Amino acid sequence: MKRFWSIGIGIGLGAMLFASTALAQREQWLRYHTSGEGRSYRWLEATTNPPPGVVLPRFNAQPYFVRWTTPMDPTGGRWMCLDRARKSGPYDRLFIDTDGSGRLDNKTPLNADRVEQYYGYFPPVRMTFKGEDGPITYHLVMRSYGNGDNPPQLLVCSGGWYEGQVDVGGKKRGIQLIDGNVNGTFNDVAPGAYDSDRVQIEGDKVGERFLGRMIEVDGQLFRIEVARDGAFVKLQKAEGIAFGPVRVPENISEFTAFGENGHFVRKPDKGAFTLPEGKYRVLGWKINRKDDKGADWTLSGYSFPESAGFEVAAGKAATLEIGEPVRALFEARTQTNREVVFSLSFQGQLGESIEMLREGQRPRGPRLTLTNLDGTFTSTGSFEFG
Questions:
Q1: Looking at the predicted structure, is the pLDDT value of residue 334 above 70?
Q2: 139 and 82 in one domain?
Q3: 266: containing domain
Q4: Are 86 and 142 in the same domain?
Q5: Is it the case that residue 6 has pLDDT exceeding 70?
Q6: How far is CA 152 from CA 61, 90, 335, in A?
Q7: What pTM was computed for the model?
Q8: CA 185 to chain centre
């Protein structure tokens, strides 16, 4: 990756402003770290169809092929192949095109360092990409899953991240960059939160935030720019940002939204707050209250569909119908062995999932009693979470 430096001689106010902006937007360099524990993950489907044009090795078992997509490779991805050393059980060998050569026949197989009934756990593997300034390193941690009845799956996790000390508004803070969508890059900003990467700044009470064009730190808004390979960040205090009003029901205690502007958490004041102008999707909401015995309860919404989007504009309030009431969804399914499985879940007004906690813990699952019409049969059971 080439680095360009600008040197200017100030002539008048315009040149002075350019110099100030260039200084605020300087590259702040970070260090690469690795771990055997993944920071984020995604599942990859496997196929028995051999990849076209890829030279293959000899296999011990029926091979399954997986393509890990990454914009860091000029072809758009790297091929892997699942194999196993035994006739049955989980797949415990991986051939990986770590260098993008388009060959698997000259690769030493990666053997699982732990095997369980359905899982094969692999140690971190080093992937290399061609950068403008030399090779770029990235690490994956992988796990195979298969029960013998269906094709195996491969779980790929980001085994590397960048971190260091950066200047945030005149104060040094630690920062971490996480490849949230596990595609080998660290600067993805997408309409969907889980298609974006993540950033964590020391002292931020929110913790990890999904990466956007801006980030809030101690109530201040900063523009953030991340290098594609994660090697550096640029931070500058955001000026001249237009905000718009948002309205939610007055009993909402906390509201979370994400958009290309960034990841924002708000504590509404009588149902009102503001966000920078732009398009967002609801990420979550909470309602806190006490029962008649003084116990704290939290009702929260999460896992929103894509349709839970809204737009913020100055001078026009975005009104969101969220929170109560919620719906109880009761479902009965007949199994092949003639057993009937009952499930109970709760859904919010936008189609989101609902969680209820008492004193920070899940309450005891409700009980279900079934009785036939003449009362000669009665069965009682309890619902379990999960």
A1: yes
A2: yes
A3: 243-319
A4: yes
A5: no
A6: 13, 8, 24
A7: 0.86
A8: 13
**Alpha-carbon torsion (350, 351, 357, 361), positive or negative:** negative
| 13 located within any domain | no
| Higher pLDDT pick, 373 / 176 | 176
Instruction: Give the least confident one: 153-157, 180-184, 205-209, 377-381.
Output: 377-381
Tokens representing 23 are: 């200084």
| Residues paired with 328 in a beta bridge | 346
pLDDT per position as a tens digit, 264-306 = 999 999 999 999 999 999 999 999 999 999 999 999 999 999 9
Note whether 129 and 190 are same-domain residues: no
Residue 175 has pLDDT above 80, yes or no: yes
Q: Which secondary structure element, helix H or strand E, spans residue 16, and what is its range?
A: helix 12-24
- Rounded CA-CA distance 234/250 in Å is 38
- Domain-located, residue 9: no
* Residue finishing a domain among 113, 134, 157: 157
Sign of the CA dihedral running 265, 270, 274, 275? positive
Distance CA 190, CA 165 (A): 26
- The predicted pLDDT at position 386 comes to 58
Work out the number of other CB atoms within 10 angstroms of the CB of residue 71: 13
How is residue 297 written in tokens?
Answer: 């309860």
Angle CA 143–179–147, to nearest 5 = 20
Residues forming beta bridges with residue 215, ordered by sequence position: 222
Total domains in the chain come to 4
Considering the domain architecture, whether residues 225 and 299 belong to the same structural domain is answered as no
Amino acid symbol at 335: Q
d(CA 257, CA 282): 5
* Percent of the chain residues topping a pLDDT of 70: 93
The residue behind tokens 């948002």 is 246
CA 184/CA 176 separation, integer angstroms: 15
Domain match, 229 and 217 both: yes
DSSP lists the bridge partners of residue 64 as: 82
